[in-house]
Amino acid sequence: MELQGSCHCEKVKFTVKSHTPVPFMRCYCSICRKIGGGGGYVINIMGQYDTLKVEGMEHTKFYQAIKDKSLPKNQQELCGNKRYFCGECGCMLWCYDLEWSEWCYPFASAIDTPLPEPKRPNCIMLNYKANWAHVPSSEEADLFDEYPNNSIESWHKKNKAFIEKE
C-alpha cells in the first residue's frame, strides 16, 4: 500500500510503500511521549525505506535522542534512530535507523492516506508512561511494560493485515 504523508505547513510531502499500514502500536516511552505532540504516546508505521520519496527534504531536520539521560553526560549515548521533522512547522514525519536500514517508520499522525483502524492496539513501554497518560484497559488493548517480543510485521501477519509485496 502506498502511503502519502505531509507536514502541517505542507513544505514537506512524502510517499512510502508499507506492507504493515495498521497504526496499532502506541509507544509510551519517555522519548516518544516527549516528541509525540501531547497525547502521551506516539504511533509509527513501518515502510520500505527504498520506496521513500520526499518533496521538500531541504525543510527537514532530524533529532537523535539520548538513550538514557539518567547516566552521567560522559556515559550517555545517542539512539541510532533519527526522527525526521519539518524545520518550518515542527511536524514529526518519520524515523530511520541504520540498524534496520530496509525500513523507515512514518509517524501515523503525518499520514494523509486513510489507514486501517486497529481492532486491538498494543500499548508498549508502559513502565515509562507519564502518570497522566490514558491507557486503555486490558479488555481493549494488549498492554506491555517494555517492548514486546512481536514485531510490526508479525503483528500484521497474525492479524491478517499484512499486505504482500507487489
TrEMBL record:
<keyword id="KW-0479">Metal-binding</keyword>
<keyword id="KW-0456">Lyase</keyword>
<dbReference type="InterPro" id="IPR011057">
    <property type="entry name" value="Mss4-like_sf"/>
</dbReference>
<dbReference type="GO" id="GO:0046872">
    <property type="term" value="F:metal ion binding"/>
</dbReference>
<feature type="domain" description="CENP-V/GFA">
    <location>
        <begin position="3"/>
        <end position="129"/>
    </location>
</feature>
<keyword id="KW-0862">Zinc</keyword>
<dbReference type="InterPro" id="IPR006913">
    <property type="entry name" value="CENP-V/GFA"/>
</dbReference>
<protein>
    <submittedName>
        <fullName>Glutathione-dependent formaldehyde-activating, GFA</fullName>
    </submittedName>
</protein>
<dbReference type="Pfam" id="PF04828">
    <property type="entry name" value="GFA"/>
</dbReference>
<comment type="similarity">
    <text>Belongs to the Gfa family.</text>
</comment>
<dbReference type="GO" id="GO:0016846">
    <property type="term" value="F:carbon-sulfur lyase activity"/>
</dbReference>
